[in-house]
């Protein structure tokens, strides 16, 4: 039996689809705008790191880095300006000019804001010796030669200096304009050399190597100890397991500031003060990582472990061959969290190795030094910040899928 669809029903379905499409487009546009708003500080930081110091202080600020175009003139490299549709250079910085206007055009409160009739080099017009009072201010009267060959009697509004600009290819072509407000010819120019300058300044390249070594060793250490602890607390049975786990988990609640003094004294006793070992060994154990792995291991079926026991695998064999391959998401989650902590750590390195030679510094300490050494060059400061941010950012982008999956599977928020 054939089904007949009325025109009104088709119109309703079509209208519903159009409304759904419009709503979906609106949501995507909103999400894109929010994402751009959130990313703008990072984008501005990267763009500023590629600017020159003078371009950073330009007002109003610009997002992209620009550099002035220069040409050789009289044996020197000079900036190029766009005037009268030509590219010109400054031949003379300041030429004295008189600015003339009619009595009706004069602004007595601010003569420089007057509507001018003509501007001429000083001493071109002839003073009449007369003066006119406008709004309580006196202005001298001049006989001013006009471009059409006639002479007009005008008031001198004010005098000032203008730059003389010439065409570098034809110096006979000249014009006069305010050198401070003239439009300078610029091109987008990414200054990648800023990164090389920052890496060699204050030995930042060595600090990056130290930070990478410390971060990798701390990450590997925390992941390893967390795998062992998580497996023990999730699968092995021993007396007082729950009480030990509760106490161990409770250490997360202890603020770091409480641990600074005893941990510092311990490092001094051991002799690890001003050494990179003090940034690695104390931090390879973590209650958070153990809890994360325990929560993930609980979700693995016990039948897999029992079958492995029947095949003759030991505890370490089961952990390495069964649990670790199945825990990629959880391991990636902890690795990212630990990497970010190790890379961005500042307070503890400042306390334990802050006064040591620069060869032992990590990137956060070097950035603190760079902030003072390049205080007049914010482009270099932001270049150093970009150098410090990019490695963990790239790591997170590459492993974000595992990070989200690990958080979801372990039930953490």
Description:
The protein is α+β, with helices and mostly antiparallel strands. It folds into 3 domains: 40 residues; 115 residues, no CATH class; 216 residues, MetI-like (MetI-like fold), CATH 1.10.3720.10. It contains 13 helices and 11 strands. Strands 4, 5, 6, 7, 8, 9 and 10 form a 7-stranded antiparallel sheet that branches. The longest helix has 43 residues. 24% of the residues are buried.
Quickly list its features.
elongated, 413 residues, 3 domains, 52% helix, two-stranded antiparallel ribbon
Helical fraction equals: 40-55%
Number of domains: 3
H/E element sequence: HHEEEEEEEEEEEHHHHHHHHHHH
Contiguous runs where pLDDT drops below 50 for at least 5 residues: none
Please report the first level of CATH classification, the CATH class of the largest domain.
Mainly Alpha
Strand count, sense and barrel status of the largest sheet are: 7 strands, antiparallel
Number of strands: 11
- Within the CATH hierarchy, at the fold level, what is the topology of the largest domain? MetI-like fold
- Number of helical runs? 13
Average of per-residue pLDDT values: 86
The assigned CATH architecture of the largest domain is: Orthogonal Bundle
| CATH homologous superfamily heading of the largest domain | MetI-like
Basic shape: elongated
Radius of gyration: 36 Å
Q: Alpha-carbon distance between the termini?
A: 55 Å
Assembly type: single chain
Beta-strand level of the residues, as a percent range? 15-25%
Overall structural class, as computed from helix and strand content, comes to alpha+beta
């Amino acid at each position: 039996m054939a089904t007949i669809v009325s025109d009104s029903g088709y119109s309703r379905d079509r209208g519903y689809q159009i409304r759904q499409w419009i709503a979906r487009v609106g949501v995507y546009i909103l999400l894109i705008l929010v994402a751009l708003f959130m990313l703008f500080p990072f984008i501005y930081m990267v763009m500023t790191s590629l600017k020159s110091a003078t371009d950073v202080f330009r007002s109003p600020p610009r997002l992209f880095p620009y550099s002035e175009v220069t040409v050789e003139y009289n044996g020197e490299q000079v900036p190029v300006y766009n005037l009268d549709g030509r590219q010109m250079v400054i031949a003379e910085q300041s030429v004295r000019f008189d600015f003339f206007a009619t009595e009706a055009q004069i602004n007595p409160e601010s003569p420089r804001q007057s509507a001018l009739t003509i501007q001429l080099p000083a001493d071109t017009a002839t003073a009449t010796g007369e003066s006119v009072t406008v709004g309580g201010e006196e202005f001298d009267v001049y006989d001013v030669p006009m471009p059409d060959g006639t002479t007009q009697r005008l008031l001198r509004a004010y005098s000032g200096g203008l730059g003389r600009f010439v065409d570098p290819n034809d110096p006979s072509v000249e014009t006069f304009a305010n050198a401070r407000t003239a439009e300078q010819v610029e091109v987008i120019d990414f200054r990648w050399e800023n990164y090389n300058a920052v890496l060699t300044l204050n030995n930042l390249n060595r600090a990056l190597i130290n930070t990478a070594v410390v971060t990798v060793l701390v990450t590997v250490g925390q992941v390893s100890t967390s795998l062992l602890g998580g497996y023990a607390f999730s699968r092995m049975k021993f007396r007082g397991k729950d009480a030990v786990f509760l106490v161990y988990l409770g250490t997360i609640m202890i603020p770091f500031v409480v641990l600074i003094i005893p941990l510092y004294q311990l490092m001094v006793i051991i002799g690890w003060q001003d050494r990179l070992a003090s940034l690695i060994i104390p931090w390879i154990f973590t209650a958070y990582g153990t809890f994360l792995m325990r929560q993930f291991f609980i979700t693995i079926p016990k039948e897999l472990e029992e079958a492995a026991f029947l095949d003759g695998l030991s505890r370490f064999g089961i952990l390495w061959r069964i649990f670790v391959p199945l825990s990629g998401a959880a391991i990636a989650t902890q690795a990212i969290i630990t990497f970010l902590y190790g890379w961005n750590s500042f307070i503890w390195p400042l306390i334990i190795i802050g006064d040591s030679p620069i060869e032992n510094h990590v990137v956060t300490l070097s950035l603190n030094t760079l902030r003072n050494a390049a205080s007049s060059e914010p482009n270099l400061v932001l270049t150093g910040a970009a150098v410090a941010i990019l490695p963990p950012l790239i790591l997170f982008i590459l492993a974000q899928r595992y990070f989200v999956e690990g958080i979801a599977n372990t039930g953490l928020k």
